[in-house]
Amino acid sequence: MTADPARPRVRLSAADRRGQLIGIGLRLLVTRPIHELSVDEVAAEAGISRGLLFHYFPTKRDYYVAVVRAAGQRLLGHARLPEEGSPKERVRAVVAGFTGFVRRRRANYVALVRAGAGGDEKVLEVFGHLRATLAERILAALGEPDPAPLVRLAVRGWLAMAEEMAIEADGGSVTTDELVDFLVDGLDRLLAPLAPADPAP
């Protein structure tokens, strides 16, 4: 398959062309696993040849990883850690951004999870970085810059639950606010036994 001859080729800068190709991949990722994306289809939609696509991404795998990385960055952009507020308020902001993104873009996120489950080492690395970054933001919100190993493990496990609940929650019966409140309160209860005991008077 080659670029559509009826579609005029638009000259873009290298950065803009890469962004365009990644954007097409993100859109297609909604309907299929990452390994089923057709670079021929992507190139045709962009109005370029398959060979030119490989000028910007040396291999198909490089392109797939770039698409997954861009999807992860979009999520992180919504789950920002505010600089001010109480620990609970800051945790709530991250959780609300994360769960809201997942619920609004469920198909995209499920496709991203499916890509991470595909077993490609580079894709798994990107997905692992995404989850680790979310965990670090939660720990920073809690005021735990150097947490005990069990605290870090508990937060990672709680995030896995939050992810699953955000994917599976029925928007008609559970609102995003209800889900966020449940998750934030649940994190408090989970970590309470791990809090250092007050020194004896």
Automatic annotation (TrEMBL):
Stored PROSITE patterns: HTH_TETR_2
Organism for this UniProt entry: Streptomyces carminius
Protein name: TetR/AcrR family transcriptional regulator
Keyword NADP appears in the UniProt entry: no
MF terms (GO), sorted A to Z: DNA-binding transcription factor activity; transcription cis-regulatory region binding
Binding region for DNA: 38-57
Keywords, ordered alphabetically: DNA-binding, Transcription, Transcription regulation
Family annotation (InterPro entries): DesT_TetR_C, Homeodomain-like_sf, HTH-type_TetR-like_transc_reg, HTH_TetR
Pfam families: TetR_C_46, TetR_N
Coiled-coil annotated spans: none
Domain HTH tetR-type: 15-75
